[in-house]
Write a structure and sequence with these properties.
By secondary structure, the protein is mainly α. The chain has 14 helices and no strands. The chain has one domain: Na+/H+ antiporter like fold (Up-down Bundle), CATH 1.20.1530.20. The protein is about 75% helix and about 0% strand.
Length: about 300
């Protein structure tokens, strides 16, 4: 990567501007059906994006397995560390553990990985493919382990109703079986997946305009915990597995993203202090916009 702030600004600017567009759109009073658009992304766009990028790594299945393993290890490491922190702070784990563990690997993380590690100066390089792999692992855990943390019981029902999980499973089957995807299917999933990233960022901005901050001091500390624990997990696993290049950078970026917006929906569904969780999501996202240049410098190896 070229030294200096230019490459970092080129990554930060589109992420910030797209989210700002969503925020200003909502604040202007214009109509934006966040529920419908989020459903379109989660049911069509994101599954197609994950499928297209994971199948695209079929020729390097060993690398795909390595990335998935690193993501799993980092998320589970964050889980243990976050649980200990909450116990020491005497805060309820059924409310705050999931927001501290599961990062915004979709709305924000995919965009950052895409722009940070493009292919030949364009989009759709290994950064997006590895980012999609992390996103798939994180989503799978979020709808299994995460739901168990919120509800206090284990259930596969939420997972079975999640197209993204089926997309990830289908991708693994295709890669493992060595199935050759016809061009029409590859082009279709690429086209449908392409709208996900800009819409994710715009929807993130809309969500930030709707969520409110409560208990700023506590939210600030927890937001710092989310970003700090994530960064530590990413760096630790990258060092442990001796990851290099794009894979190392993507793991660090995805681990250190702010708390996932989906945590707010789960908090509302299971009545786990949704206002407090929403506040944590907002504050961690706002702080991440400030810390993102530093995170990119670490991930890109920029002096």
């Amino acid at each position: 990567m070229t030294a200096g702030l230019g490459p970092i600004f080129a990554v930060v600017a589109p992420v910030f501007l797209c989210a700002a567009l969503g925020f200003l759109w909502a604040r202007s009073g214009r109509s934006f059906d966040r529920a419908a658009i989020s459903s379109l992304i989660s049911s069509v766009g994101a599954p197609c994006l994950v499928f297209h990028n994971l199948v695209g790594l079929a020729a390097r299945s060993a690398v795909l397995v390595e990335m998935a393993g690193a993501a799993l290890l980092a998320i589970l490491g964050s889980l243990v560390a976050a649980y200990l922190v909450l116990r020491l702070a005497r805060l309820p784990s059924h409310t705050y553990l999931s927001p501290l563990v599961f990062s915004n690997a979709g709305n924000m993380g995919l965009a950052v990985c895409n722009f940070a590690f493009p292919e030949n100066g364009g989009v759709g390089g290994d950064g997006l493919a590895f980012g999609a792999c992390f996103f798939a692992v994180s989503s799978f855990l979020h709808f299994t382990l995460g739901v168990m943390l919120w509800s206090g019981r284990f259930s596969l029902r939420e997972l079975a109703r999640t197209p993204l999980a089926w997309s990830a499973v289908l991708s693994v089957v295709v890669v493992a079986a060595g199935v050759r995807i016809p061009p029409w299917l590859s082009n279709t999933t690429e086209l449908l997946g392409a709208f996900s990233i800009p819409l994710m960022l715009i929807t993130l901005g809309v969500a930030l305009s709707e969520l409110r901050i409560r208990s700023l001091a506590r939210s600030g500390l927890l937001a710092g915990g989310r970003l700090g624990l994530g960064l530590a997990a990413g760096l630790g696993v990258a060092q442990l597995l001796d990851l290099q290049g794009v894979m190392r950078g993507v793991l660090i970026i995805q681990c250190a993203m702010p708390s996932a917006v989906f945590n707010v929906l789960f908090a509302e569904q299971y009545e786990r202090s949704p206002e407090q969780v929403a506040s944590l999501v907002v504050v961690s996202t706002l702080v991440s916009f400030v810390t993102l240049p530093l995170l990119l410098a670490v991930a890109l190896g920029t002096p």
